[in-house]
Amino acid sequence: MSKEFFEAVKMIEQEQGIPADYMYEKIANAIIVAAKNDYNGKDIVHCDIDPEKQKIKVYVTKRVVEEIEDEDTDLTLEQAQLIRKSAKVGKTIDIPIKTKNFGRIIVQKAKQVIRQGIREAERNQMLHEFQSKNQELLSAKVLNVDPVTGNATLEIGKNVAVLPKNEQVPGEYLEVGDIIKIFVVGVHEGTKGPKIMISRTHPGLVRRLFETEVPEIFDGTIEIKSVSREAGSRTKIAVYSKDEDVDPVGACIGPRGQRVSNIVEALGGEKIDIVNYSEDPAEFIAAALAPSDVCEVEILDEAANSCRATVPDGQLSLAIGNKGQNVRLAAKLTGWKIDIKPESGFYEG
After folding, report:
1. Among 74, 174, 215, 295, which one is most buried in terms of CB atoms within 10 A?
2. What is the per-residue pLDDT across 215-270, written as a single tens digit (0 to 9) for each?
3. Residue 208 and residue 167 in contact, taking contact as beta carbons nearer than 8 Å
4. What's the chain look like in SS3?
5. 299 neighbors 307 (Cβ within 8 angstroms)
6. pLDDT digits (tens, 9 = 90+) for 46-85
7. How far is residue 277's CA from residue 295's CA, in Å, rounded to a whole number?
């Protein structure tokens, strides 16, 4: 094999990150598969690749026998001694095959197996890379948006993944060249290669954005207790700190509201309610119903996590929210079923 061959493998390693040793193994297997056809598929062909000496050695191992039983695998002593004078009956002998004598069909088959090996290595590399980023926040560039399905093809590092329309923020329009944040929901090996599940609607995206923007969350001073989200519209996030000198809500909002503003911008204008977590269910539920004030929270059934929140008459609609969104998100955030009651006991008509 020529010097150019080894240089090509080295180039593939540098440009695609596929280890040269992996490639040489696949290439050796391809040559063996192709050459075995000349010996009726018998497992007697071997291939050694030495990149340091830039040599490929292909040979057939045959048995030295007194009487030939199989032309593919056997040699007489006389035949063997023409190749190696020290050959003896009962031993084996390696017979070199000149790679330049491989026919066109053998070379084509070898190329096919090599290409398949490269694709497999790329898939494995992609799978490994995304597995290491599972449940993480990543930046991605929009390469294409399908005008029919709305699915977006994204460039993430050296890899490409598809963001389905149903995992995009409702009302958000992606354009080619946009740089967006995505959350890796999960990674698994599928029949057609790695299956990467990415999302812009998952609550984990909000959680990771806060970890990125708020140093106190990243270093553990503040803990995110729960997140509930209706993507494109509103998110509620409950935060807590054991340090009494730290205001978890204020830290998440940031100086002049800059931290939360950066997150809102990354989410395309989605509203965010940041509330204090409390181990007291009544306090937590009251906080979760922000921006509405709460007069009282009555625990109805602790086992069933059921409660009733009383709010000022003028804030009943605010507590419930548009189409029930505020109370629905508060229920998801706290894990409690919340019934809203006006202070006067009379519901608005």
Report:
1. 174
2. 999 999 999 999 999 999 999 999 999 999 999 999 999 999 999 999 999 888 99
3. no
4. CCHHHHHHHHHHHHHHCCCHHHHHHHHHHHHHHHHHHHHCCCCCEEEEEECCCCEEEEEEEEEEECCCCCCCCEEEHHHHHHHCCCCCCCCEEEEEECHHHCCHHHHHHHHHHHHHHHHHHHHHHHHHHHHHCCCCEEEEEEEEECCCCCCEEEEECCEEEEECHHHCCCCCCCCCCCEEEEEEEEEEEECCEEEEEEECCCHHHHHHHHHHHCHHHHCCCCEEEEEEEECCCEEEEEEECCCCCCCHHHHHHCHHHHHHHHHHHHCCCCEEEEEECCCCHHHHHHHHCCCCCCCEEEEEECCCCEEEEEECHHHHHHHHCHHHHHHHHHHHHHCCEEEEEECCCCCCC
5. yes
6. 988 898 888 888 899 999 999 999 999 999 999 999 999 9
7. 18
All residues at 6 or more sequence positions from 157 whose CB lies less than 8 Å from its CB, including other chains:
129, 138
Long-range contacts of 71-76 (CB under 8 A, 24+ apart): 72/39, 72/40, 72/42, 72/44, 73/39, 73/42, 73/44
Q: Give residue for tokens 């894990």.
A: 335
Half-sphere exposure of 226 (CA within 13 A, CB side): 19
Kindly report which listed range (1-5, 179-183, 242-246, 268-272) carries the lowest average pLDDT score: 1-5
For residues 74, 77, 82, 86, the Cα torsion angle rounded to the nearest 10 degrees is 110
Give this prediction's pTM: 0.67
